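Deliverable D5.2: sample structural annotation.
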Amino acid sequence: MAQDTEQQARTTRPATPARALLPLVLPAVAVGVGASLLYIGVSSAAEQLQHVLWGPLPDALGVGPYSVLWMFVMLVATGIAVGLVVWKAPGHAGPDPATTGLNAPAMAPLVLPGLVLATALMLAGGPSLGPENPIIAVNVSLAVWLGGRAMRRAPGALWPMLAEAGTIGALFGTPVAAALVISEALAGRPMRGMLWDNLFAPLTAAAVGAMTTTLLFRPAFDLGLPALGSPHWQDVLAAVVIAPAAALLGLCAVAAFPHVHAAFQRLRHPMLMLPAGGVVLGALAALGGHLTLFKGLAEITVLAHDPTGWSAGQFAVMAVVKLAALLVAASSGFRGGRIFPSVFVGTALGLCAHALVPAVPPGLGVATAVLGILLAITRQGWVSLFTAAVLVASPSIIALLCIASLPAWLLVTGRPQMQLREDGAPVR
């Protein structure tokens, strides 16, 4: 009877009138534009610095930009530089990045410059992390701080939701990812009005953020792999094998995460933890090569441009090295997110599957492997499905990904994700 009453309340929930939604448009547009501009600014500055550090500078010194020596020097130097920021900047560049995810708490404005600087140095220097977590954290903090002063009567929960949606839209260049993430978050909360009423303002921020990034920065996730065409039974079999296999590899990294993090925490000081992380990352770069550096989005286009350019063993080595580098970078204190490097891991695994079994289309291998690894690392079902789908421009991939997600989800559900609580215990 209680369930029937709850269901009836859901179905009779009144819609929010337009006059209540219209005042949200302007703040949503402002937050979306601001979130995108901050992301573009940090990314552009990091790219310019990366160009100098990995081009003219080693050339002037007579050292190959991707020689083992230079990769090792740069990663250790990046550890020292980020360590100095974490040590000396007000607020120590935010909380331990191992404890943060896409849902970021608002921080004091004094903390934000250090976090932005640490993120830009990390992106330019080569550690295997993406910009998503710190950029979302900065945008949420700015939105709460500025929005709370500009519109004191607006509910406090509005600003973090707008900032998260606007940043996710800017990061992926489309509002769809943000809408899916916000819908997943709203599913566990009591709502007033219809779902689309609650999505109206976040979707506005995400759409504006995505359009701003598209017009000014032109991000591209489509890897240009051959179109899949009409799927066959063997494609279904490949999908339900590759996605769980990738998820299992991701779960291995998730299981190791608390232990690797605890090992670096024993060093206690950021000027010990981060340079030590740089040393390990330098050794991994020597093993995996320069394609296993950085956040990984530019590097996956190199792999996808020539899917037969490496052997299955080489693809496997790059996948494992990149996952290990992600694990070390996230454990040793570098500020960054875990989604973008996980996409590289999945891409290398998918191309490894294609190299082992040429009948597996490279697009199918990449999409399903990215799906599996992201499910294990993030436990974000919609983000994993969406990210895997946008890498391959093929309508038929959606159904295959939905099928592949089922066995992969059975493996990862109820298990920890690659995020820790403040006491070092895994987040489930």
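Annotation notes: The chain has a mean pLDDT of 87. DSSP finds 18 helices and no strands in the chain.
The annotation will be released with the project's public dataset once the embargo ends.
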